[in-house]
Design a protein that fits this description.
The protein is of the alpha+beta class. It contains six helices and six strands; from the N terminus they run H-H-E-H-H-E-E-H-E-H-E-E.
Amino acid sequence: MEERVQSLHEKATRDPLTRVSNRAEFDRVLALTVQNHLEGGRPCSLIICDIDRFKSINDTFGHQAGDEALVSFAAILAKSCRQGDLVARYGGEEFVMVCGDCDAKGAVELAEKVRAELSQTPLSELKGRCITASFGVAELQNSDNPEAILRRADHALLHAKESGRNRVIYQDGRGGKSPQRQTASTSFNW
């Protein structure tokens, strides 16, 4: 009985492909984290990231290779996160990290660490090529709810993509964007 309950819990909270948390679990954890950190006056940050030019990966190497790239990306995210952080597949090639007790500076450093590792990790499923990703970071503000911090992180991600990809962008609570790391976009001939 206990194994069945565990199996059902896994199915309800895990992405079946990447084995990180799924969107429903992310929504639940983000709401709890925002509430707890606002009540406790502690910092909390959200990172949203997206594999750059993922459609080109699928078109060039096939959907199986694209799936394997998603699994590799999720594994790098999970390995890089701190104990207690949540990594989830948000949808498609987009992932999120909920970083409790982490201010914007710490979240930007974490995102940069992942970005650098990813861009230097050859993937066998892509014939030894590396992939890149863009990252948007937002820190919880006193007036935030889960939708507000997610919206700011998503805007920062959009700005990272529009300014050349393969970079980390932080968006503060006032709507300003602060590029923390401007890394030249890598061109791939796929």
